[in-house]
Design goal:
CATH superfamily of chain B: Thiamin diphosphate (ThDP)-binding fold, Pyr/PP domains
CATH class of the largest domain in chain A: Alpha Beta
Structural class of chain A: alpha+beta
Helix content of chain A: 25-40%
Number of strands of chain A: 19
Helix content of chain B: 40-55%
Largest sheet of chain A: 7 strands, mixed
Distance between the termini of chain A: 42 Å
Oligomer: heterotrimer
Strand order of the largest sheet of chain B: 1-2-3-7-6
Distance between the termini of chain B: 54 Å
Radius of gyration of chain A: 30 Å
Number of helices of chain A: 12
CATH topology of the largest domain in chain A: Chloramphenicol Acetyltransferase
Number of strands of chain B: 7
Chains: A alpha+beta (470), B alpha/beta (323), C alpha/beta (336)
Structural class of chain B: alpha/beta
Strand content of chain B: 5-15%
CATH architecture of the largest domain in chain A: 2-Layer Sandwich
Shape of chain B: globular
């Protein structure tokens, strides 16, 4: 028995509801390796190659290439681990039910991950025979949730408000504090578990304490009152300073260079700063889908590098280097990415990023970051560059202004993504995810309007990110 | 002797089935084939069969933790019981009950019971129901010399007397309540029946290792109770060939005690002797039954080992009728 | 330190207390074992071997082998206590509280209160509880939640031999009625026991694993399942506090709340079915008094709402396992 898998119309981006098969690159019965091209699919926005996700045999092609739109999730072909008998495939095809995720006509009216942004979506009507609480149903309809994907935690699988609410919330990455040292049990001392741990941390001898907790037990507060004297009577107002000698660290070569260049840049270049907020909900959703479909692990920053590069290609006035009294305008964008390395700030370059596909940018940046972290970046990796992207969003920085990296004409500083309330057309409030971009510009080379137009293009590209794939 | 040849053969077969069922379980448990706590009825077969041969499916019995014999005598399916004790989904109780909780209500078997002394009040209730039905049916509770010391048993006896319930208290005195001797634990004149007598019941006493004594006594008891005279009690003096539970080291037994009771007080040997003396049945016929029974038990064990195992989702079935 | 089995910890502690205080008496079914038989007293010595040697050492007036009469056993313990003795009654199986509940609930739990504080009832009722032996629906139950719900009773559930000794001494020296619940799967477990005459106060939970991400609360056999889950999770950098409550009445509220205030996440593991259980009790405590600290709904890993099934597979499916505990931990960590 061959294990059969459905190959379905993929969903790229929030709004894709259908696609057209432009061409099949495989035939029935053909073996494919992972990464082999299977077909070309066109949408109203892009044409994309679809690769095999795993090795197998094309058991049957259901939808031939033709100029007709096929809904997302529809069965396009059946792929087996190995050659499959006809009746096996027949049974699979007849038993196939498309995942309801986002393919029903209802779903078009509001995709599950669509953030409430510019305009409110009309609530969809959900018909379901599953048990569900009224509030849960209302929330699902309002948010356009596909209930097939929601597990009911109530009695008999009833879907509760909490179930739907959890489903629409983004996944979390809990910050773990991990295991702690278990204090030894001392039967002679009556202290609560936390009191024991705190005593161990603060070096308090429990035997010296009198317990004020239940049944005379030493509790947390008994330890803390000794460890961190706070209460009035015990508080000592005299402060005795201790030695505070610095540790002297001479600059190494890299730091000397960085220091010299940044000093001269900050002193010599007449900086001006342009700031804009852009909504990234669409980009985040697209990234998720593209990462799934393309199998790449592109970061948000990779997309920002890509958007910068595309915008630079459209605005050659920004894509410049300043050499004395000469302006060098480049046809392609060599985008430097600021990376913190053990030896300090380094700026390796993604060359001709405007010509790259996202997975190429992702590969180039991750390779550069690896090299930077190992201190193996070569001169060639860092020489030149027409523009720099510096991102401190991962540290929670909301916005900042960067120093231009000469001879480049501008640098983009990227802050963290924040959920921000925005007013909708009808006056309602909704939340969207925004990042702040701050462009530092060398006024000798670039005028204010040119910088502003460049940023405006970036905003358009980021907020309608399908264009990045155009 | 008022038993026909067929009735005699059936009685013998039933006792033999119980004996071999239990002997085989003893081996299966010792070799780790069966989980849980199991209490074997071996040695007491004449009581269960001598009582139940008088009954049909609409008479009710309530049993004890040592219940396999009562179940088999009342007509429970051998395969179904073996599968239950093996914990199979195909067992009489779908693997939910196990040895201590076998029941087959359709056969009038209202359950073995893990709680010593819990059965007597239940039997009184069943008897009151049968009294309402007015068909002359009876309910019988089996209790040991352990259960006779529980307050529930006393309360049940008094309740049966005051309500004139058609209930029979069958006390199987096998001389041990768990590991404690009857001599120590039962205070009334060293017998149980006199307690029932004190509650106002008519009582009988007989040798529980003699099938014919049990059978004849029960004929009288049943006639009395079916006639609407209210409850009655009977005490059978019998023997337990194994420990309280399987795994019991039985250090409380006297030296050679087990060998002696097996030699002198075995109800099957006793039965064979009696039918041979009276020239009622031929040894060869009984030998043939022995062979058939051994095959039957072998087949039951094979079937139980091959039977379907329960699934995790079965845990929540039959907690309620509706919920 | 001495290595000792749980059952020996029970036996040796009662034995020592009987030597120490002549008012301590023992009663129950087969606590002597073999009374009235050819084998004679001590032929068996109790089915859990927790009273072996008592009869020979202290005689029939202080080691009272009883008929199978649970109601009378518990009631007599109450009477012994009211009349100035310190009885240790054994119920053999915790399920048999069903037979003797009136004496536990309406009598010994309430004497002191009903009598205006003019008396004490220092009876210790021991019982073996818990599943794991395929002993089916009437010999496997965990009854702590039933007893914990009764004002006037203290409920003790030791997990280790060391705790058995400290808690049983505390029970035998205290003046309140104590339900002493021994898990039958733990009788054969060996552990280090401190030397010396120590006691462990009631209402004093023990932290057996420390971590700052999730709080696991359990008793008895479930503690080891929590520890197994915590150890596996620690390898992924997930830290769990594992709290062994040791007594459910009194309850160490402080230890639970202290831990939840640090972790913000609580998983309660209980061998009994969930409804009106220790698990719901602790969940209610945390949601009432640590609501502000909670970052995820409290998870309860408990037995399902059913009697305990017989078959091996069913009993395994019935009981909370380390895997189920791990899944609950992940669920609270992944809460959105």
């Amino acid at each position: 028995m061959s294990k059969l898998r459905a190959f379905c119309m993929p969903k790229w981006g929030i709004e894709m509801s259908e696609g057209t098969i432009a061409e099949w690159m495989v035939q029935e019965g053909q073996s494919v390796a992972k990464g082999d091209l299977i077909c070309l699919i066109e949408t109203d926005k892009i044409t994309n190659e679809v690769e095999a996700e795993r090795p197998g045999v094309i058991a049957r092609i259901i939808e031939p290439a033709r100029d007709e739109a096929i809904p997302v999730g529809a069965l396009l072909a059946v792929i087996g681990d190995e050659a499959a008998a006809n009746d096996e495939v027949d049974a699979f095809v007849s038993g196939f039910a498309p995942a309801q995720g986002g393919i029903s006509s209802n779903a078009k009216k509001g995709g599950p991950a669509k953030p409430a942004a510019a305009s409110p979506k009309p609530a969809m009507k959900i018909e379901t025979n599953r048990p569900i609480s009224p509030k849960a149903l209302a929330l699902a309809e309002e948010e356009g949730v596909d209930l097939a994907l929601v597990e009911g935690s109530g009695r008999g699988g009833r879907i509760t408000f909490q179930d739907v609410h959890q489903h629409i919330r983004p996944a979390v990455q809990p910050v773990l504090r991990g295991p702690a040292k278990l204090p030894a049990e001392d039967l002679a001392i009556f202290a609560s578990p936390l009191a024991r741990r705190l005593a161990a941390i603060h070096g308090v001898d429990l035997a010296t304490l009198v317990g004020t907790g239940p049944r005379g037990r030493i509790s947390k507060n008994d330890v803390l009152s000794v460890a961190e004297p706070k209460s009035g009577g015990r508080r000592d107002t005299n402060f005795s300073p201790v030695a505070n000698e610095p540790i002297v660290v001479p600059f190494d070569k890299v730091r000397k260079v960085v220091a010299r260049r940044l000093t001269s840049a900050k002193q010599d270049i007449p900086h001006f700063y342009l700031r804009i907020s852009v909504a990234v909900d669409e980009l985040l959703a697209l990234r998720k889908t593209a990462n799934l479909v393309l199998g790449v692990k592109a970061t948000l920053n990779d997309y920002l590098v890509m958007a910068s590069a595309k915008a630079l290609a459209q605005h050659p006035d920004i894509n410049v280097q300043l050499h004395g009294e000469e302006l060098h305008k480049f046809p392609h964008a060599d985008v430097a990415v600021a990376v913190a390395s053990p030896k300090g700030l380094v700026t390796p370059i993604v060359r001709q990023a405007d010509r790259m596909r996202i997975e190429q940018i992702a590969a180039a940046t991750s390779q550069m970051i690896d090299k930077a972290k190992q201190g193996r970046l070569s001169y060639e990796d860092m020489d030149g560059g027409t523009f720099t992207v510096s991102n401190l969003g991962m540290f929670g920085i909301e916005e900042f202004a960067a120093i231009i990296n000469p001879p480049q004409g501008a640098i983009l500083a990227v802050g963290k993504a924040s959920r921000v309330p925005v007013e909708l057309d009808d006056g309602d409030l909704a939340f969207e995810t925004q990042i702040n971009l701050t462009l530092s510009v060398d006024h000798r080379a670039i005028d204010g309007a040119a910088g502003a137009q460049f940023l405006s293009t970036m905003k358009e590209l980021i907020e309608a990110p399908e264009q990045l794939f155009g | 002797m008022q038993l026909s040849r067929e009735e005699l053969l059936q009685a013998y077969r039933r006792m033999k089935v119980i004996r071999e069922f239990e002997e085989r379980l003893h081996v299966e448990i010792a070799t780790g084939q069966i989980a849980g706590f199991t209490h074997l009825y071996c040695g007491q077969e004449a009581v269960a069969v001598g009582v139940c041969e008088h009954l049909d499916a609409s008479d009710k019995i309530v049993s004890t933790h040592r219940g396999h014999g009562h179940c088999l005598a009342k007509g429970c399916d051998v395969d179904g019981m073996m599968k239950e004790i093996y914990g199979s989904r195909e067992g009489l109780c779908n693997g939910k009950g196990g040895s201590m909780h076998i029941a087959d209500v359709d056969k009038g078997m209202l359950g073995a019971n893990g709680i010593v002394g819990a059965g007597a009040p239940i039997a009184v209730g069943a008897a009151l129901s049968l009294k309402l039905d007015g068909q002359g049916k009876v309910a019988i509770t089996f209790s040991g010399d352990g259960a006779c010391n529980q307050g529930t048993t006393f309360e049940a006896m008094n309740l049966a007397v005051v309500t004139k319930a058609p209930c029979i208290f069958v006390f199987e005195n096998n001389h041990y309540s768990e590991h404690t001797g009857f001599e120590y634990a039962v205070g009334t004149n060293k017998d149980i029946a006199s307690r029932a007598e004190a509650f106002g019941m008519k009582v009988w006493r007989a040798d529980g290792t003699d099938f014919f004594a049990v059978y004849e006594t029960m004929r009288d008891v049943l006639e009395y109770v079916r006639d609407g005279n209210g409850p009655a009690a009977v005490e059978f003096d019998t023997e337990r060939f194994f420990g309280h539970f399987e795994g019991d080291p039985q250090n409380y037994r006297g030296k050679g005690e087990l060998e002696r009771i097996r030699a002198e007080r075995d109800c099957l040997t006793n039965f064979r002797q009696k039918v041979a003396d009276a020239k009622l049945l031929e040894g060869t016929v009984l030998d043939a039954i022995d062979e058939e029974v051994l095959d039957q038990i072998d087949a039951a064990v094979d079937a139980a080992r091959a039977a379907e195992r329960p699934q995790a989702e079965d845990v929540l079935t039959n907690v309620y009728v509706t919920y | 330190m001495t290595k000792m089995m749980y059952r020996d910890a029970v036996r040796s502690t009662i034995f020592e207390e009987m030597q120490r205080n002549e008012n301590v008496v023992v009663l129950g079914e087969d606590v002597v074992g073999g009374m009235g038989t050819a084998g004679g007293p001590e032929a068996i010595g109790g089915i859990w071997s927790t009273s072996t040697g008592f009869y020979d050492a202290f005689g029939p007036d202080r080691v009272i082998d009883t008929p199978i009469s649970e109601s009378a056993i518990v009631g007599a313990a109450g009477g012994l206590a009211l009349a100035g003795k310190r009885p240790v009654a054994e119920l053999m199986f915790a399920d048999f509280i069903g037979v003797s509940l009136d004496q536990i609930w309406n009598q010994i739990a309430k004497f002191r209160y009903m009598f205006g504080g003019k008396t004490t009832c220092p009876a210790v009722i021991r019982m073996a509880y818990g599943a794991g032996f395929n002993a089916a629906a009437q010999h496997s139950q965990s009854v702590h939640h039933i007893l914990t719900s009764m004002p006037g009773l203290k409920v003790v559930m030791p997990t280790t031999p060391a705790d058995v000794r400290g808690l049983l001494r505390e029970a035998l020296r205290g003046d309140d009625p104590v339900m002493f619940l021994e898990h039958k799967m733990l009788y054969g477990v060996e552990g280090e026991v401190p030397d010396g005459d120590y006691t462990i106060p009631f209402g004093h939970a023990k932290l057996t694993r420390a971590g700052e991400d999730v709080t696991l609360v359990a008793t008895g056999l479930m503690v080891s399942r929590c520890e197994a889950a915590a150890d596996a999770l620690a390898e992924e950098g997930i830290g769990c506090d594992v709290l062994d409550l040791r007594t459910t009445s009194p309850l160490d509220e402080e230890a639970i709340l202290d831990s939840v205030e640090v972790t913000g996440r609580l998983v309660v593991v209980d061998e009994a079915p969930q409804r009106c259980s220790l698990a719901t009790d602790i969940a209610a405590l945390a949601s009432e008094k640590a609501f502000a600290s909670l970052r995820a709904p409290i998870q309860m890993v408990t037995a399902p709402h059913s009697p305990i099934p017989f078959a091996l597979e069913l009993e395994q499916a019935y009981l909370p396992s380390a895997d189920k505990v791990q899944a609950a931990v992940r669920k609270v960590l992944d809460w959105r």
